[in-house]
DNA sequence: CAAACACTTCGGCGAAGATCGTAGTGTTTC
DNA sequence: GAAACACTACGATCTTCGCCGAAGTGTTTG
């Protein structure tokens, strides 16, 4: 099998702390400039430039020139998927090996992406809002309809907290589902609302979100996304997690 | 986020060609000795010893001493999952980025694992055989019932080809499905039978298996596993693959 | 008990590559 | 047009780490 050398090449790229930091920073789908990435990874701009060139050449990053700066993002959800694989293995380490894929599964189910929700649930919510014509989405933009505004008003979601300057509503490609969820002010408002009403809560030291029993009921009632929610019929950690509030598994 | 350094540590381990070769060789769930791994990765035994120690310390490999030799295998399905992530990214490289997860998807659907079948289909077959009490499975062993023997006789599967010394029937954890499929002589006989009757065929340069139209029909009729098989309703590469024999996508 | 075997430890060699200072190109701002 | 800015290219230094020869420990075989 000659697959060994190939994966070594990619792994070696990720194997440098500086480059790994850059990739981690881009995990949530953001696009960042070379300078920002240099700062985040803790190396000089010259060094970062070299690293970014290598990552782009290898097809791990996609670049876009705008003006005098270059914006980098992960080249595809595949790359994010690979990084998540590494994260899961890395976080467990030598200790307690058994059943630790729970972390990964929980992440895929519901997590934060910057300031909004991602994962199966977030994609289902976006689907539902589009299906009901509350939101219009295309490749790189989104728009709230009048019906959508009424819907959120009735729900008590405050869409005005966002600063004037930020994008109001946009799609954000979900790397575990390979389909878009909602970002922008609307996405942030939904997450804020869900946290305030105890539909979900943060899991310590993780981007994963725990869906509470209240959340299961309310998300189903509000968005009609039973399919994406844990149920009694759904065996496995997600279901057992959501049955009791206290059962927080370190991820 | 301090996840950067952690994933770098793991990635750096995989980033060496020698170690990557070792891990690749173990991808299908086999257990190999240190000497075998040294030969397969093309380094001297001393070097291999060091590499294996590092991989074990990091929790990527599990070791078992038996007599004067040490048997290594991947520590968990998580590791295999991570390696697959790297493989998928590595095989695509800079070129044609779009829709290349087909390879991974095909692998998850049906592939060989040593000399038997793995993937969704294999897990479904194992489920069905257990459900019908043709086979009894527990953690680390399996047993063919009398009813099971009759079933395979009627089907024309020859279970006697296996050498006397090999394990007759045992479960083998499927890393893409996280549930067991059948290994041992019975597992091998099923794959042999499927290949001889053109239910599946090897895809060139890959461990992936292509389920032929005949296979779709016969596997459904024989094992009642329609759910795991590609159908017309199932969009995506697997369905398009199975519709015509000629449509072999390089993986 | 000796010999063969499987594996590990030690030590020195050598190549790969990460780092940053200096200097350069292209872009924006004033 | 000059200055500030974002990024890139080159080169010297230095650390890291893979590599294998030699020697050592534990196990099996005859």
Description:
Two copies of one chain form a homodimer. Chain A contains eleven helices and eleven strands. By secondary structure, the first copy, chain A, is an alpha+beta fold. Chain A folds into two domains: 73 residues, Orthogonal Bundle (Arc Repressor Mutant, subunit A); 142 residues, no CATH class. Chain A has a three-stranded antiparallel sheet with strand order 1-3-2. In chain A, a hairpin with a 2-residue loop joins strand 2 and strand 3. In chain A, helix 2 packs across helix 3. The C terminus of chain A is likely disordered. The interface between A and B is large, with 52 and 53 residues.
Q: Low-confidence parts of chain A lasting 5 or more residues at pLDDT below 50?
A: 95-103, 232-251
Task: Outline the biggest β-sheet of chain A.
Answer: 3 strands, antiparallel
Estimate the strand proportion of chain A. Answer: 15-25%
- According to DSSP, the number of beta strands of chain A is 11
Q: Give the strand line-up of the largest sheet of chain A.
A: 1-3-2
CA(first)-CA(last) distance of chain A: 34 Å
- What is the helix content of chain A? 40-55%
General form of chain A: globular
- How many structural domains in the coordinates of chain A? 2
The topology string of helices and strands of chain A comes to HHEHHEEHHEEHEEHEEHEEHH
Largest interface: A-B, 52 and 53 residues
Provide the residue-averaged pLDDT of chain A. Answer: 75
Oligomer: homodimer
Instruction: Give the helix tally of chain A.
Output: 11
Q: Kindly name the structural category of chain A.
A: alpha+beta
Overall radius of gyration of chain A: 19 Å
């Amino acid at each position: 099998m000659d697959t060994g050398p190939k994966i070594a090449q990619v792994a070696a790229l990720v194997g440098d702390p500086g480059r790994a930091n850059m990739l981690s920073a881009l995990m949530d789908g953001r696009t960042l400039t070379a300078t920002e990435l240099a700062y985040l990874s803790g190396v000089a701009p010259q060094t970062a430039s070299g690293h970014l060139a290598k990552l782009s050449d290898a097809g791990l990053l996609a670049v876009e020139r705008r003006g005098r700066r270059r914006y980098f993002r992960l080249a595809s959800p595949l790359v994010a998927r690979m990084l998540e694989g590494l994260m899961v293995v890395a976080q467990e380490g030598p200790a307690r090996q058994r059943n630790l894929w729970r972390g990964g599964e929980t992440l895929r189910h519901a997590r934060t992406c910057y300031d909004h929700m991602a994962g199966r649930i977030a994609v289902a919510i976006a689907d539902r809002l589009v299906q009901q014509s509350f939101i219009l989405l295309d490749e790189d933009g989104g728009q709230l309809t009048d019906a959508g505004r009424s819907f959120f008003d009735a729900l008590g979601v405050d869409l005005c907290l966002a600063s004037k300057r930020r994008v109001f509503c946009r799609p954000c490609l979900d790397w575990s589902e390979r389909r878009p969820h909602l970002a922008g002010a609307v996405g942030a408002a939904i997450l804020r609302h869900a946290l305030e009403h105890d539909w979900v809560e943060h899991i310590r030291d993780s981007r994963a979100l725990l869906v509470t029993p209240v959340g299961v009921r309310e998300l189903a009632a509000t968005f009609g996304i039973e399919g994406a929610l844990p149920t009694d019929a759904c065996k496995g950690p997600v279901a057992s997690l959501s049955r009791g509030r206290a059962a927080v598994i370190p991820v």
